[in-house]
Amino acid sequence: MLSILLLLAGKQGFSENIRVFTSEIVFTKKQERRKKMKSDGQQNTMRYAGLATQLMVMMLIAVWGGNKIDQWLHWKVPVFLILFPLAALGLSLWQIMNEFSKPKK
């Protein structure tokens, strides 16, 4: 670090080079903060998208599985077609509550 400052001092005035050097550091730190804020937003978006995808897949599997079991049993009332999606909805709501109760990393 000292060698960089000495090289800068040789070309122009020392105080002017220090000002340029420190402004570049401040500018770089601002860029890093902006990138971090942008990545946090993307991380939240991916978190919500993952939970929504899990919910949809669970519901589709529950409806499909409940329908297949009801067809196999030949019952008049589609009990499993009603129970499986309700159970999947309860499980996914429990999963969402657990996910949002955790602090963000």
Helix and strand arrangement:
Blueprint: H1 2-11, H2 14-73, H3 79-101
Helix pairs in contact: 1-2, 2-3
Please summarize what this structure is.
By secondary structure, the chain is mainly α. It has helices spanning 2-11, 14-73, 79-101.
Task: Tell me what the structure shows.
The chain has 105 residues and is mostly helical. It has one domain. Helix content is 89%, strand content 0%. The protein is built from 3 helices and no strands. It has helices at residues 2-11, 14-73, 79-101. α1 (2-11) crosses α2 (14-73) and α2 (14-73) runs antiparallel to α3 (79-101). The protein is rod-shaped, with a radius of gyration of 29 Å.
Features:
105 residues, mainly alpha, rod-shaped
Poorly predicted regions? none
- Quaternary arrangement of the chains shown? single chain
Number of helices: 3
Shape: rod-shaped
**E-strand count:** 0
Computed CA radius of gyration, to the nearest angstrom: 29 Å
Q: List the secondary-structure elements in sequence, H or E.
A: HHH
Reported for the largest beta sheet, the result is:
none
